[in-house]
Amino acid sequence: MLRPRYHDNWCPSWEGTEKKWYRCEDGIHPWRVGVLDATRISDGSLVALKQVLKSRHPYEAEIGSFFSSEALVSDPKNYCIPLLEVLQVPDDEDLTLLVMPFLREYDSPHFDTVGEVVSFFSQIFEGLQFMHAHHVAHRDCDGRNIMMDGGHLYPKGFHPSDGDMKPDMSGMAEHYTRTQRPVKYYLVDFGISRRYKAEDLPIREPQIWGGDRTVPEFRKSDEPVDPFPTDVYYLGNMIRKDFLNRKSGFEFMEPLVADMVEDDPSKRPTMNEVVSRFEGIRKSLSSWKLRSRVGHQDELGFIEAYRSVAHWKRRFGYAARQTPAVPLP
């Protein structure tokens, strides 16, 4: 069931009133092209409908269905977005609709503690390791294609097209922290992903540009490359850009990230090595460090002070209740 805005008999709710269209629930457009929210009638859950042209992305539904198969969907290391259903558009043989859980951007809302980010790193590392173990290269696993099942953080819901607002757009949506209600992250968008046979590995494939345009091996030549080290680069560069360069307190990730973004793909660690090294890093972090606040390098002084006071209040509460410093789903 689509929202009323997309019904045949829809009439803008602001017409004939003094309301501004952008303050009305039905005035907000979807935030991602080709993706629309809907409600699953059987249980009332929020889902996402993604349109896929089979001629352009012939493997997306196949790879998504593979990771959603009964044999793999229950594996705790499987962080690939599950496919709930694949719908064929009746009057267009080339067009399918993938039905998936409705997810949020991985950093929305902002991370509260270092431990929450450590949980994020742990899950996405294991998720890509899981894909590689099944001989699937994502080929576009930057920050845009990592999302979060965070609906339960918002006890009164949020608007699907503006996740910071209440469902009726009447004000800001209240939410819990990830420490209070742990979340699961997912790797999404298998449009340019590829699955290989074990006997064909290692593989050399023609280059396919994803959203990250900084891949060193793509910039040096047009020669076919092994896509698995490129995946490692994507994750490492996402952490470098979004955490090391924009937030404070993550110096402990610098050596691992530096190796993940090596210009020479052959010098990058495999995802097995990344997971193993990160486990050692995680064990070296004290509870004090894990419960510390995630600082943003562009914060103004008074905002930082306000957020710090609120954080310390939560921090003492977590410690008193013995809430795990690294929240895992």
Spans where pLDDT lies below 50 across 5 or more residues:
none
The total count of helices amounts to: 9
Sheet of most strands:
4 strands, antiparallel
CATH third-level topology of the domain at 103-289: Transferase(Phosphotransferase), domain 1
* Strand content range: 5-15%
- Category by helix and strand content: alpha+beta
Give average pLDDT, whole number.
92
- For this structure, what is the CATH homologous superfamily of the domain at 103-289? Transferase(Phosphotransferase) domain 1
Folded structure, characterized:
- The longest helix has 20 residues, at 114-133.
- The radius of gyration is 21 Å and the shape is globular.
- The chain has nine helices and eleven strands.
- Helix 3 (114-133) runs antiparallel to helix 7.
- It has a domain at 103-289: Orthogonal Bundle (Transferase(Phosphotransferase), domain 1), CATH 1.10.510.
- A four-stranded antiparallel β-sheet has the order 1-2-4-3, with no helix packed on it. It has a three-stranded antiparallel β-sheet with strand order 5-7-8.
- The model has no long low-confidence stretch (mean pLDDT 92).
- It has 329 residues and is of the alpha+beta class.
